[in-house]
Amino acid sequence: MWSPVVKLAAFLTLIHVAQAQCSYSMLQELTKSYVSSRLAGQISTLSTAVYTENFKSSTIQNSVHAQPLRIDHNRSLHDTTQCATYTELIITDSRHPYVIGTQMRYTPEGQLTQIDSLVTDAGDWLFNATGTLYWATREDWSPIPEARRDSRAVIKAGADAYLDLFSNKSTVVPWGTPCARLEGGSYTGQGRPTDSCNLVL
Ligand SMILES: *[C@@H]1O[C@H](CO)[C@@H](O)[C@H](O)[C@H]1NC(C)=O
Ligand SMILES: *[C@@H]1O[C@H](CO)[C@@H](O)[C@H](O)[C@H]1NC(C)=O
Ligand SMILES: *[C@@H]1O[C@H](CO)[C@@H](O)[C@H](O)[C@H]1NC(C)=O
């Protein structure tokens, strides 16, 4: 029912740093360390944080994070205002493919307090790690020129509307045009200037 790979590529921009609570470079170091420690399944730097998996309270020791993962693709977002990060991992390893989305919350000093992961695998809605990898690596996530960036409030309202759509079909989402959605391993865009995200899935 849930895809961790939430993509609003048409209007997601880099967050405008009005009141940074955490440094961007610190958060970048923290996500880099999170990703690299997945290769051996090291959890020492994660184990003091509160952990939820697929919205349920859990322990990092019993999670997917405690095993070595062959990562095909990783991408992280860094929110300096909320001292939070989001990292997506795509693992196509045929022994057990996964797509994992993880939010991490920090104190301004960089102490990890909370980890929330959405772990999807075989049987989940539109799950196809090979397809997710194929489309995710074709997306352009390079920085948007400063003059063309939306405000933090506009970006947040758009993302909230997208998520609300899953529980309320009347939600109006401010899609851009063209717009494409990557849901699980399925991509809605066809490369046309009129591609729309306003479709029934
Ligand atoms: C994560 O992604 C970056 C950028 O694509 C890449 O340079 C790095 O090697 C990746 N890390 C791992 C552990 O796969
Ligand atoms: C998964 O995605 C790949 C790449 O797009 C595609 O070739 C394959 O047919 C898909 N598998 C299923 C079961 O849909
Ligand atoms: C669903 O969204 C519409 C449009 O924003 C809103 O008017 C309505 O109150 C929402 N319904 C519920 C049950 O939240």
Account of the protein in words:
This protein is an alpha+beta fold and 201 residues long. The chain folds into 2 domains: 3-136, Nuclear Transport Factor 2, Chain: A (Roll), CATH 3.10.450; 146-187, no CATH class. It is 18% helix and 22% strand. The strands form 2 sheets. It has a 6-stranded mixed beta sheet with strand order 2-1-6-5-4-3, with helices on both faces. The protein is globular, with a radius of gyration of 17 Å. The termini are close together. The chain binds 2-acetamido-2-deoxy-beta-D-glucopyranose (NAG) (3 copies). Residues 168, 170-172 line the site of one 2-acetamido-2-deoxy-beta-D-glucopyranose. One 2-acetamido-2-deoxy-beta-D-glucopyranose is lined by residues 128, 130-131, 134, 185. Residues 148-198 form the DUF8021 domain. Residues 1-20 form the signal peptide. InterPro entries: DUF8021. It comes from Candolleomyces eurysporus. This is DUF8021 domain-containing protein.
Summed over residues and divided by their number, the pLDDT gives a mean of 90
State the end-to-end CA separation. Answer: 11 Å
Classify the secondary structure makeup into a structural class.
Answer: alpha+beta
Q: Give the number of helices.
A: 3
Strand order of the largest sheet: 2-1-6-5-4-3
Q: What best-fitting shape do the alpha-carbon axes yield?
A: globular
> Can you list the ligands bound to this structure?
2-acetamido-2-deoxy-beta-D-glucopyranose
CATH architecture of the largest domain: Roll
What share of residues are in beta strands? 15-25%
Helix percentage = 10-25%
The count of strands amounts to 8
* Computed Rg: 17 Å
Domain DUF8021: 148-198
Signal peptide: 1-20
Organism: Candolleomyces eurysporus
Pfam family, one: DUF8021
